[in-house]
Amino acid sequence: MSSATPTTAWATLRNQSRRLEEETDVLFSRYSALASESVSSVDETVESSIRDSLMRRGQIVESLSISLDSDSGASAAKTHQLARSREILADHEREFARLKANLQQSRNHANLLSSVRQDIKYEPKVKSSTSDQFLREHESISSSHRMTDSILAQAYETRDEFGRQRAALSRMNMRLLNSASSIPGLNKIIGKINTRKKRDSVILAVIISMCICVFLFWG
Fold first, then answer.
1. Rounded CA Rg of the chain
2. Which of 30, 40, 178, 201 is most buried by its number of CB atoms within 10 A?
3. 65: Cβ–Cβ under 8 A, 6 or more apart, which residues?
4. Does any domain span residue 155?
5. Could you report the per-residue pLDDT of 154-184, keeping only the tens digit for each?
6. Cβ 62 vs Cβ 129: under 8 Å
């Protein structure tokens, strides 16, 4: 009875290990499908189930190792079974790490594509806004240029008007000079008139002075 107990325990642990190996293969198939579909979110229960299965298998392998060490008459078949269980567990752990890396890469790629789409969708709005701003600035500059041209045109017109008036005054002065020079003795007559006015003014002043003196003397 005592010799049958280790054998039974070994068989039970081996059956549990094989069942968990098959379960892990099924979970890997689901996990691999999710990774190939480049999904942005994955059911966390799949990863959690795989980690739980690998952990329990590690515990079973450890129990098998303890059982084998305590069995002095262990057969070569048991040693091979334990080595095989460890090998399959190590392969599955590496496969799980690879699938996780592939899935993370798929997530990063999907996020990058989403970001690029958002940038492409937003870029026309930015270009449109920038174009509208450039158009408004161009219109403002054009309006300033038109106003400046109008002011310059008015300044040039005023300058030309002053020039025309100056030319007209010059022509009028020349005509007056020509008219004065064309009348014989005009300057001489004007001179005599001015001399007579001066003489009359002196005579009037003398008479007024004499009247004042007489008034003062007789007064």
1. 62
2. 30
3. 82
4. no
5. 776 777 666 777 776 677 667 666 665 666 5
6. no
